Every structure is written in structure tokens, then in C-alpha cells.
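Thread: quick sanity check before group meeting

JM: Hey all, I'm pulling together slides for Thursday and realized we never actually wrote out the predicted structure for the chain we discussed last week. Dropping the sequence here so it's in one place. If anyone has concerns about the input, flag it before I start.
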Amino acid sequence: MDRNRVDQVLAAAASVIAGGAISHNGHGNVSIRVPGTDEMYYTAASSLRGLTPDGICRVRLDGTLIEGDLPPIQGAVVAMHAAMYADHPDAGCVVHTHSPFATAFAVAQQPIDCWIEAMAMFGLADGVPVAAYGPRGSEQAVANIRAAVRPGVPAVLLANHGVLVFHRTPDLAVLVGGVIEEAAQAAVNARVLGGPVALPAGMREAALQRAVAFDAQGTRRA
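JM (edit): ok, ran it. Output follows.
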């Protein structure tokens, strides 16, 4: 296997853990597409915590194992990663977790609205939809995910399961997963104060434009 690809997956998994948008046991999967091929590098371990190179495999998007080991329980959800790559040609990374607060919304089968400014800034101005439940890794589950994903929204909640995020790069996928978890946690906490209030539609666009106007150093772009 390509060590650089393996290192990318290890780094993405470590970023998910460091960001805290993951369950205590670390269950989840990270995959990275190999550009120009029908392949991805995929985490085949049962947890993203303490992931090592032995826990990463190379898989075709049709689910065929090329290198490494892929236990059946982990192989069952390869199809939902592959579906995101097939449907979104610009996607370079898919992250699936059971992050606690976002998963609470998935278990309640309730979408996450644009409750915090960061959601508007990072492609989630319309919130995060819920894909109807289907048995883990089944054709029905994958079909439900594909049907629920909205154009331009790089994430979906999996009813009674967890969260699926896809984006151009691992850094962006991990970032969006963290934003979703933050919004879900804030909404749950806000319920003791009367409930969360979504940003008005016009302000969501304004938040996005404000973010675009500044670069990472905080200086206004020309």
C-alpha cells in the first residue's frame, strides 16, 4: 500500500479523535479516495482510537479488497462510502462516526438546523437531513442515504445509527463533522432555555459571505 495514503488516513482518524466528535469507544470509519482511480483507503479497524497501519486497507469502490484485511462487520459499510464518491466526484474523504450529540438527533430521527454560525460558514446553511433507517450496510440503507443527501450539503444523519460526512479533503470532512457535533450539543443544551433558534435565512447567506471575505489569517481578501 502507498504509505503516503496510509498516513493521510491515520492523520484524518487522529484529527477526528482530537476534535472529540466521536463516541467514547471510537467506532467509525474514515476513507480517502485515490484520485483518478476506483480505489479508496479505508479504516478496517473497529475503532478509530489507536489506529495503526494494520487497521487500514485498500478497497475498490465496488467493495473488492485489494490489500490488507477487511473484517465483514467493517466491510458492511464500505458501500455507503463508495456511494458518496460515486455521487460526488469532488469528494476526497468520507468520515462516519457515532458522535454523541449528533447521533442523538439521528436516533430521534430529527434533522439538525442551522443553529450556529459555523454551519452557515461551512456548507450547512440548510441544516443536516436525516436518511431513513435501513439495516447497516444494506442496499436499502445506501439508497436512503443517497435520497436524503441534499445538493451542496456535505453531510447526512443516518437514522438510528450515526453521522456521515464527505468533503473535498480530510481536513474539511473532519471540520464539518466537528461543526455538526457542536451544533447538536448546543441545541440540546439550549432546550433548557426554551429551545434552539435557527439563524434567519438571510443571515445564513451573510455569514457565508463574511467567511469568504476573510482568509485564514483574518485579513480581508481583495
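AS: nice. The mean pLDDT is 92. The first strand starts at residue 28 and ends at 33.
JM: adding both to the slides.
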